[in-house]
Write a structure and sequence with these properties.
single chain, 4 helices
Length: 114
């Protein structure tokens, strides 16, 4: 029974961290949707990158903790963070801007954009 209790506590902690990650990502997406660039790192702009760095670092730290718990629980890695990382970086010149991309992400996550 002790192992089951430990696994349940790990799963509860995982769910808490995932909720914290979701809240942090949604807040960052709202900021980006409002016109602040840097979260998706589409432009080689040092200032924008520096502004977004603490948010991106916090998300990465949460994701690492989540993945460690998921590994202990035998679950797949945290897909939301993997998707976020895949969306970052340089894009073609005709790709949607970061604010538009952030609004699309918010819609995909089922969050009101406004």
């Amino acid at each position: 029974m002790a192992k089951a209790d430990r696994l349940e506590r790990l799963d509860v902690r995982r769910a808490e961290l995932e909720a914290e990650y979701d809240a942090a990502l949604i807040a960052a997406l709202h900021t980006t949707a409002g016109g602040v660039w840097g979260l998706f790192d589409h432009k080689p702009d040092r200032q924008a990158r520096a502004k977004a760095a603490p948010v991106v670092a916090a998300l990465a730290e949460l994701a690492a903790d989540i993945d460690a718990l998921r590994d202990q629980l035998g679950l797949e890695p945290f897909a939301l963070h993997q998707s976020f990382l895949a969306a970052r970086g340089p894009v073609a010149s005709d790709a949607p801007g970061e604010p538009k991309q952030a609004r699309a992400w918010l819609e995909k996550l089922g969050v009101a954009v406004g």
